[in-house]
Specification:
This protein is mainly alpha-helical and about 130 residues long. It has a single domain, classed as Helix Hairpins. Helix 3 packs antiparallel against helix 4. The longest helix has about 35 residues. The structure holds adenosine-5'-triphosphate. The site of adenosine-5'-triphosphate (ATP) has 10 residues, from helix 3 and helix 4.
Length: about 130
Amino acid sequence: MSSDYQGNKNKRVGFEHAINGVKEAIKSERNLKIQMVISVIVTIMGIILHITPVEWAIIIITIGLVLSFEIMNTAIEKVMDYLAPEFNSSVGLIKDISAGAVFIAACTSVIVGSIIFLPKLFRLFF
Ligand SMILES: Nc1ncnc2c1ncn2[C@@H]1O[C@H](COP(=O)(O)OP(=O)(O)OP(=O)(O)O)[C@@H](O)[C@H]1O
């Protein structure tokens, strides 16, 4: 079945839609802005503390995981707001579960960051 969007489908290259999605998510989601600032700070710390290539790979995967989960959470929130804008306990639960996935990814990133950075910071200051 074709929908109204089919007429606009070929006006942009595939990744342009994705870049637009990232921009829109950043505009509308405060948490995503905070996570991006934290990602920049972590990257600067990685440069200053001379982390190894393997540590860079782990940090980059972790940052990608958190940002991707937050963007997916934003998409789920938007779908739910579109389909059911009124108060609904099932909608609330779906959003809570989606936020839970971000929370798990964020906790993982804190643990990974601590394992990589804390010993280096400790050596720097003590
Ligand atoms: N339509 C709704 N019905 C019931 N509860 C809702 C509804 N919309 C949101 N909630 C509750 O409010 C919480 C926050 O939802 P909201 O859509 O405001 O996301 P947000 O402020 O961007 O939060 P997040 O930090 O998870 O991104 C949800 O996790 C849910 O518990």
